[in-house]
Amino acid sequence: MRKWMTTLALGLVAALAPETQAAEGGGRWIDDFDEAVELAKAEKKDLLVDFTGSDWCGWCIKLHDEVFQHEAFYANAEQDFVLVALDFPRSDEAKAKVPNPTRNRELANTYGVQGYPTVLLMTAEGDVFGRTGYQAGGPEKYVEHIASLTKDGKASLAEVKGLISAYEKAEGDAKAKAFVAVLEGFESRDGSAAGMTALADVLRAHLTADAKDAAGHNERIIRALMDKGHADDEVYDAARTLDPKNEKGLLEQVVWARFRGIVDEDSARAAIRELEALEAVGGVKDEKLALEMYFPAAWLCAERLDMPDEAKKFAEKAKAHCPDSDQERMEVLDRILRG
Question: pTM of the predicted model, to two decimals?
């Protein structure tokens, strides 16, 4: 829900930015990703890919002005990276300069880009080993930041490849142990760490291959994927199948994921429907999570979805879990209940 509610605020940060261009004395950006990949392979370099909104995104403009306009950035970055600028502008003039907006959107979806600027560091084969955005401090600090991401990210990527290779090559009991190592490697990393997508693919494949949970890992896998932000609809379906009455608390985690993914009215209504279905089998078990879902449900129904009866129902439930010290939310809930 935060993403949806902050979209308007982010949209207000608008200003015309200068075109992304070479810094005086050197530096260049390629606006065709596939062309950049071929160049990176030929030059044996990695890719630094800037997903930007050049004519409206305030933080993109600051990153451009404070870092990408300076030779100190190019002198270092171009030694190791092919620079790629994938623009998502709003003005017709800027849109006309984007060579392949459909491909840009496809890449944003592939790499899970949800805000701008998003800067990805990746190999020419598409393995992401670093993810960042705006950083204060100017070009020198940004170069240091990229170097740190590269060092840590490539080390993590190498470890992940080793785990997956060992699992793919193993047989019998050794394969079962290698799979547990993959699962532990996933659980021990941050959700955005390098290689997590590859590990998540192995875990999701296991859910499909062992749908009846003969190995007894599925609950742990589902929890890990949801906790690290790598769950998809198939994972949610597996959670519903494994815990249809929310006895293990998996079903409420699925509903919570729906609320975190609200971006528009349709996704808000879908989340409300899932919460109502959860109510039908006993409701939310976790006290803290109950408030985190019932409160936004009440607000959405009252302020965005024109569902006054549902708004009051969820407001009552939210009040039952809301501490008296949380005066701000209490005031909102009282206002909803007054109609």
Answer: 0.77
